[in-house]
Amino acid sequence: MSLPKAEVRRLFKRRVTRIFLILTLLGLAIFPVAFTISSQRTGPEQRAQAAERAQQDFERASADFKLQVAQCEAEKAAGATDTEVRYGPNCGADFGPRPEYFEPANYLPFEFDFSREFQPSVYVFCAILALVAFVIGASFVGAEWHTGGMTNLLLWRPRRIPVLLTKLGVLLGAMLGLTVVVGALWTAAFWAIGRYDGQVGKLTSGVWQSFALTGARGAVAVLLAATLGFCLASIGRHTAMALGVGIGAVVVSEIGLRIAFELVQVRFGDRFILSTYLVAWFDKKFTLYDYRACDFAQGQCNPGELVITWQQSAALFAIVLVLALGGAIWSMRRRDVV
Amino acid sequence: MPAVLEISGLEKTYQSRFRGARKALDGFDMVVESGQVHGFLGPNGSGKTTTLRTLLGLITPNGGEMTLLGERVPAALPRVAGRVGAIVESPQFFPNFSAHDTLSLLAEAGGVPKQRVPEVLELVGLRDRGKERVKTYSLGMKQRLAVASALLKKPELLILDEPANGLDPGGIREMRTLMRGLAGAGMTVLLSSHILGEVQLICDSVTIISRGRRVVHGPVAEVLAQHAGGGVTVKLESADDLSHAAEILIAAGARVTPRPDHLIVSNVEKSAWVTRTLAERGYYVSELAPVKVDLESVFLELTQTAPVEGQARQVDDSAVVAPGQGGWGV
Fold first, then answer.
1. Which residues is A74 bridged to in the sheet?
2. Rounded to two decimals, what is the model's pTM?
3. pLDDT tens digits for A39-91?
């Protein structure tokens, strides 16, 4: 067990790990702080004030509207011929303000609702952690190769594959621990915001279960990102290899392919975009619509649909994982350390 | 003495898609006996580092056999790695860790007691700088740290690739003393170096490699004696007579290499023959001495890497030995 212990020490002694962990915690802390500042608990008094302001705005808009219609009719009586162009048919009298346009709810300050708004915050949390896990994973092995640390280690522990997998195991364990601990703090922070500055909403066991599943999917995404960063840097024997491939994949997939598919009008082109599968993974499914086939001049259109399921996402991620891990193991086993 | 390291017929070819294949090791043989300091010499690109990396499992050979401490490697490497300390080429460490952290992480990974860390830092002279980051170290200090890392596990066999690289004169002398001390304590040291004077001083035996093949091997004293060639340097009273004297000696069957102020005469059984032959023709020798050879001249001769005026020697321009021919008198 000496190698895993040494690798845990090495991981947390590294400056990149420490700096990224501090920046991550600070960055994540911004969200609950911002929500705390912007969320205000609303009671009967605030709701009454909002209803009153909505009514006042409705009355003011109605008065302005009446003046406008009256002015139009006066101009019409004076012989103006362009009133229909400027005010619409019948001086726009058919399009006056209605009370439902002035919902009192829109006049309430922002109030955080934990049961409704926590889930999207988990996506943000996981996306940030996944990015950090990718960089730390890449640097953990990439810098070791680049600086010769891996060569030194292999002189002490010549079993290459166990060394590589021990490092990966330590990385994944650390990232999972980080996700669980910081995720628990994240949940507690947002629950406290809902409890003291907003609403917690109806927290049934089903809601908690849904949060837990979203968190689990997020944790898988974080571990996948860490593994990919680690494996790419191991194949390239440099951190930059993983970062380059990561940035390249994002640019090619999210920008290049989107533009290309738009130009050649590929049907459901988004099914070839990586982020589609990430969204489907978190939301259980993602529906793509083929609006290009619609001719709205003919009236309402029901566009063609393509549903990407989380199972499809899981299959894609598994293929990517097998390729990356297989490549890293093959490279570790077969390539000379020169 | 039993051999702690044996290499036989080692082959390694580097394949490049664009530049084709390049043979780095071409049937290389080496034997290092227990308790010796063994010098491993060769020109740049001759295959020294490839040999050491192959021996330590970092490079996969294309053929040949290797044993370390009596066990076949690379198969048995996990078993013997704990008994072999090594530094390969330039010292490489994570720059943001201190020497102490670097060594304690290695000690932990290798199951070595942590109290060994301050011991080796003391041994290589880094005791007071052990807490500083490696990136602040000079090349010589990194070299000391590399040696410390190799000594950490109290190895039976110590493999050092250019350990004196970057060391100051005092450091080189300390390294020499350290190695002699280690060998005296029963450790076998395999030392690859280009500082041939040091090798001659430190090493008991030597192997010279050129273009991936062994050119010569054996105890240092015997290698030097074998290449002294029984030659003598001859000076005359007048340097103007050297060309005539050379002609006389060549005509009498000697091999003569003229120098500006003397002749080097070989292929003679006794020095007195030179004096007598020249005196009979009226030329009188003012100085006659046996030719002294050092490891550097033997190395340059055997590897054919001596600088030639007006020529820029390329790294691959060294001696090629026929397979299986490496040995005495080559």
1. none
2. 0.82
3. 888 888 888 999 999 999 999 999 999 999 899 988 888 888 888 888 888 88
Mean pLDDT (chain A) is 91
The encoded tokens of residue B305 equal: 């890497």
Spatial distance between the Cα atoms of B30 and B40, rounded to a whole number of angstroms: 9
DSSP summary character for residue A322: H
- pLDDT for A318 equals 96
CA distance B15 to B10: 16
Distance CA A67, CA B248 (A): 134
Mean pLDDT, residues B58-64: 93
Q: What does R_g of chain B's alpha carbons equal in angstroms?
A: 24
| ipTM, two decimals | 0.78
Q: DSSP string of A188-229?
A: HHHHHHHHHHSB-----HHHHHHHHHHHHHHHHHHHHHHHHH
B188-192/B157-161 β-pairing: parallel
- Of B60, B91, B105, which is closest to A6 when you measure between CB atoms? B105
Q: Do B108 and A159 touch (CB under 8 A)?
A: no
When scoring B94, B96, B131, B152 by the number of chain A Cβ atoms within 10 A, the one with the most, hence best to mutate, is B94
Largest Cα–Cα distance in chain A? 100
Numbered residues of chain A with Cβ closer than 8 Å to any chain B Cβ: 2-3, 5-7, 9-10, 13-15, 143-144, 147-149, 151-159, 334, 336-338
User: Mean pLDDT over residues A254-270, rounded?
Assistant: 89
The amino acid present at A112, given as its one-letter code, is F
Report the alpha-carbon distance of residue B46 to residue B192 in Å, rounded.
12
As a whole number, the mean pLDDT across chain B is 85
| pLDDT number for residue B307 | 63
Q: Which residues pair with A304 in a beta bridge?
A: A290
Residue-wise pLDDT tens digits, B211-266: 888 988 899 888 887 776 667 889 988 888 898 999 999 998 888 888 888 888 88
* Among B81, B94, B96, beta carbon nearest to A158: B81
Cα A338-B4-B10 angle, rounded to 5 deg: 45
pLDDT (tens digit, 9 = 90+) per residue, B113-148? 989 999 999 988 898 999 999 999 888 888 889 889
Minimal CA separation from A183 to chain B, in Å: 30
Burial state string for A302-334 with b = 16 or more CB within 10 A and e = fewer than 16: eeeeeebebebbeebbeebeeebbeebbebbee
Edge-to-edge strands of the sheet including B255-258? B255-258, B263-266, B232-236, B285-290
Most A CBs within 10 Å, among B66, B100, B105, to test the A interface? B105
